[in-house]
Amino acid sequence: MKNILTILILLFTLNACNQGPTAKNDLGYINEDIPITERMEGIPIPPPPSGEMIQSTVTESMEVKIKDDVKDQNSNEIQKKIIKDGRIGIEVLDLEVTKTKIDTLVKTNGGFYANDRFDDSKYESTFSLKIRIPSSKFENFISELESYKGTVKYKEINARDVTSEFIDLETRLSNKRKYLNRYGELLKKANTVKDILLIENEVRQLEEEIESTVGRLKYLNDLVGYSTLDLVLTKKKDFKYDPKVQDSFIERLKQSFSNGWNSFVDFILLIFRLWPFWLILPVLIYFIRKYRRKIKK
What we know:
8 helices; Alpha-Beta Plaits; alpha+beta; five-stranded mixed β-sheet
């Protein structure tokens, strides 16, 4: 009986020694589902923000906003983000005067030229202008522009609502910054080089995503803040007969002799350029005559 009890005690001791350190949950039980790379000496790494998590956050935030609007009708609405742009073609009678007026109008409204090009041909003169105007003054600018003397050849104004894209980008940016702060706290607690490198890699990826999101928001803000108008000013020119001035008869006769001599020289040079064919020609004539003699016999 003592021998059996001793054997059981030894087996229990060996089994306890074979169980290494394992991850435990908050209740003290072993959780083998946690990856080794995320244990980090007892410091779990938060997972990077996934597309589904961010989309879920966006949906939740929108639901909260809708509920708040239902509860309080006097609450502030979401500020709309509208991108306005367009293109207009105007035919004018005095191109320079009209261009001067538009320069003054652009400056008065706080705008600027993104591109200014002038083209002149036999039939018309054209100013191609890309104008950036504050969105709040875009409609008034177009109205004043159409009041000038001229004929509007074409007009197209577009407006795009990018409010949802703004909300999505701002929510993603907020979530990424929160994760970045959490990684910063974990980096202070990391004890091994492996853990530090693992966290720094996640931080680097998050910083790149944050920079990309911030750049996209700045680009959209610029498009929303300043509208773009492609303006083409055209002035038709009166038809003028402009015959080509011809040289005198003596001058043209000299040119004819010169051209004839050049053609003759080119012909002589061509003959000399074909000298290999002149060497082959006698041989071909000899064989042709010999062949004809055989046929006659």
